[in-house]
Amino acid sequence: xxxxxxxxxxxxxxxxxxxxxxxxxxxxxxxxxxxxxxxxxxxxxxxxxxxxxxxxxxxxxxxxxxxx
Length: 68
Description:
mainly beta
């Protein structure tokens, strides 16, 4: 089954800082690398961010810590 997958990173204010993926995907295991930069290529500060993964009708949100 194919479903639209959206993966984005947000700052503590809830602002989207990086859209990592918007694609139709088949179920499975995938790896996405993020280099700690925003959509304009600027390095983001160390700290806490959130990512949101939407696939089909489901949404997962998790916290992550960016450390350099």
